[in-house]
Amino acid sequence: MKKITTLSVSALVSAMLLVTGCSTNNGNQETSSQSVSVTEKSPANEKVGYSLGYMMAEGNKEAVGDLNLDTFEKGFRDGYEGTDSALTQEQMQEVLMTYQKEQEEKFVKDMESKATDNKAAGEAFLVANAKKEGVKETASGLQYKVIAPGTGKSPKATDVVEVNYEGKLIDGTVFDSSYERGEPIEFPLNQVIAGWTEGLQLMKEGGKYEFYIPSDIAYGEAGNSGIEPNSTLIFTVELLKVK
Fold it and tell me: Which CATH number do you get for residue 195?
């Protein structure tokens, strides 16, 4: 899983430059974008323009969620047609850098707030979960429940294992699943989160466990793709084979 990173306005600017450099509209800017109709039978230059515009917007709408489309189109047209810009190059660079800094600060504050809330929610969940029938807890705070004990060998931290699994947040949201992909996954046990490294060594081949992993032995304050900072995680794991 990829780690969560702050947005980069420079990536959006690069995408804008790409569209400007690749446009094949030959200077014909008379038609408003709202009245243009594009189909698979449209001329090639219309389809190229639409495709570049759509993919750029789709790929960057999260980076600039409050983008003013009217002024964006105005700036794009002026730049493409060679019209004098309303702002100097220095002013535009300052505007974009200031915007990027503000968004990064906002992102950091948002992540800090989520980290605090998730930590508290995770701790409350684990306290309640520890009281449920069949749930055991290790010294690290890892909680687990045996669904099927298994009869094969147990892995060491240095072993490669083959497993099927489903990962959920404590609100029930599934963020990853080998079952959905239709095939198990294989990996060295010492190259995953600490909760997995510890938990799978409790299992035997053929076993199926449910793990409740505190954030400090999961992805911690950094979080991960689809996982907010300080999230407590729930995994259902089947240990298929120790290699």
Answer: 3.10.50.40
